[in-house]
Design a protein that fits this description.
Largest sheet: 8 strands, mixed
Mean pLDDT: 92
Shape: globular
Helix content: 25-40%
Radius of gyration: 20 Å
Structural class: alpha/beta
Low-confidence stretches: 1-21
Number of helices: 10
């Protein structure tokens, strides 16, 4: 390598580091208060003038754990850390939120918090170079359940332009036979016993996004591993079928051999994140960079 090539490489690296340095992560911003508890989010603001498309990231963790920083137990099945670099590189203003957990806070506290976060982001996106007219909800597992359900609500104040569900829980009734009743997570969330009762079944149906599908919903992208033993891929396939039957857009990316946790997905299908970003740019009508 001659000195000119070395100089060019050094300059390229320096510019890249400078651009990365100008992106700013702001942590522990209060988006609301519930029962005396501050509801917090982190926001990553890209370099440049914007306005940038917006992603609201909602972690999973069985409605009882997880954290906006990626996870409260880094590397576990609820760790959403892989999202951060991808959305940052794609120049999204992204907000990663915490919400109230079960069993201390029963249903619908977590959904209420997600809805509060959506309203707050709509009102404040421009303060962080975000475009309030180009907002996507992104959730994994229990977080996927919350974003998919919020997107089906009849409430213009929380309407968004796109939804991405990673291994999202969309039908709480589907795997009842396999589990022999309510899972521990659902028992904690709903304050109901494991044994299924007519009342519990009615509640499970009420909180399942599948049962709220109607025409006129925003476009959905579902991403699911076909080796997921926590949330069966059938849930995404059934949810997609019902959305399509109602004339809504829903695309599905299947990750062959992928389990529930996100950590290994890129190794199994290296292009899935790029496909997600491309889908979002199209759904949000974002001009090509």
């Amino acid at each position: 390598m001659n000195w000119i090539t070395r100089r060019l490489c050094f300059c390229t690296l320096s510019v890249g580091l400078a651009i990365a340095a100008r992106a700013e992560l702001k942590q522990n911003i209060a988006y609301g208060n519930a029962g005396g508890e501050a509801l917090l989010l982190d926001v990553n603001v890209p370099d440049g003038p914007g306005p940038f498309p917006v992603a609201i990231l909602v972690h999973g963790g069985g409605w009882s754990s997880g954290d906006k920083s990626g996870s409260d137990h880094p590397g576990d099945g609820a760790d959403i850390t892989p999202w951060f670099a991808e959305f940052s590189a794609a120049k999204f203003t992204w907000f990663s939120i915490n919400y109230r957990y079960a069993p201390k806070n029963r249903w619908p506290a977590c959904l209420d918090d997600v809805e509060t976060a959506i309203r707050w982001v709509k009102a404040h996106a421009a303060d962080y170079k975000g475009d309030p007219k180009r907002i996507a909800l992104v959730g994994h597992s229990a977080g996927g359940h919350l974003v998919c359900l919020a997107a089906t609500m009849v409430d213009d104040s929380i309407r968004v332009q796109a939804v991405v569900g990673f291994a999202a829980v969309t039908n709480h009734e589907q795997d009842l036979p396999m589990r022999g009743g309510l899972s521990t997570s659902l028992q904690n969330l709903l304050d109901r016993p494991k044994a299924l009762t007519p009342e519990s079944l009615g509640l499970l149906r009420e909180i399942s996004p599948l049962n709220h599908v109607r025409p006129g919903l925003p476009p959905f992208l579902l991403i699911h591993g076909d080796a997921d033993k926590t949330v069966p891929i059938r849930q995404s396939k059934d949810f997609q079928a019902k959305l399509l039957a109602n004339g809504d857009r829903c695309d599905l990316i299947v990750i062959p051999g992928a389990p529930h946790a996100l950590a290994t997905w890129k190794k199994l299908q290296p292009d899935y994140e790029a496909r997600m970003i491309q889908w979002l740019r199209e759904a949000l009508a974002v001009p090509r960079p």
